[in-house]
Amino acid sequence: TGVYTVTGSLSLETLNGLIDVGINALSANADQPTSVHLHTENGYAPLASAAFSPLTRTFHSAIAASLALDATSPSASRGAFHVVAGTSNAVLTLTHTRLTPGARLTLDAQTSNSPAYVTLAPAYEGTFLVQTTNARPRLLRGKEGEPDPAGRGRTRELAIQLADGKTIEGEVRWVGGEDGREAGALGNVAVRSRNAVATLVL
Predict the structure, then answer these.
(1) Distances in whole angstroms, Cα of residue 97 to Cα of each of 23, 48, 55
(2) 159-197, pLDDT tens digit by residue?
């Protein structure tokens, strides 16, 4: 539990412990991603006062993280971030409150026997995968008509490439303006849950 600022790498691991954190990750070099690793495991113990809902229970081994991902200088405006979060038998919730436009984010979020819920910042561009085993994946759109976070008047384009009972795959980009993006700068996000719902909010 706490608030962390990271410029290189941060790893938080626990056994039967809740990870409830706010993280400000700073990237100074797009060729060396700033990395965040969150891992906890084992069973859960809901608070007596918690509502009986998988998304509102408090678990001892849950992950609840808020992440702000910022480039630190004009020369690092594209930035790069690598986030891995995993737990078992507990809810995983990641909320990206901020991402520098043009920065590359790779994210792998996994849990089992409980829901996974990931919200991306509007600036995210790249591919996404939402996958479950015995429940339907969910892809939700954020605020309709979200303005271009880079202030260049672009519009957000979402393309679904695969959607079946267990998997949703696709890509999201900002289009319609001068991009200047270097090849390979798009991100990659994967949200997976075994035996429970996996949700991605774009």
Answers:
(1) 10, 30, 19
(2) 999 999 899 999 999 998 665 554 446 899 999 999 999
Beta bridge partners of 126: 172, 187
Q: What is the pTM (predicted TM-score) of this model? A: 0.87
pLDDT 10s digits, 99-155: 998 899 999 999 988 999 999 999 999 999 999 998 889 999 877 778 999 888 888
User: Three-class SS string for 46-100?
Assistant: CCCCCCCCCCCCCCCCCEEEEEEEEECCHHHCCCEEEEEEECCCCCEEEEEEEEC
Q: How far apart are CA 199 and CA 197, in angstroms?
A: 6
In angstroms, the Cα distances linking 101 to 21, 104, 122, 148, 162 are 23, 9, 9, 9, 26
Cα(69)–Cα(52) distance, rounded to whole angstroms?
Answer: 33
DSSP class per residue in 140-173: E--STTPPPTTSS--EEEEEEEEE-SSEEEEEEE
Query: Which amino acid does the sequence have at 51?
Result: A
Closest listed residue to residue 69, CA positions, set 135, 148, 122:
122
8-state DSSP, 187: E
According to DSSP, the β-strands at 126-132 and 167-175 are: antiparallel
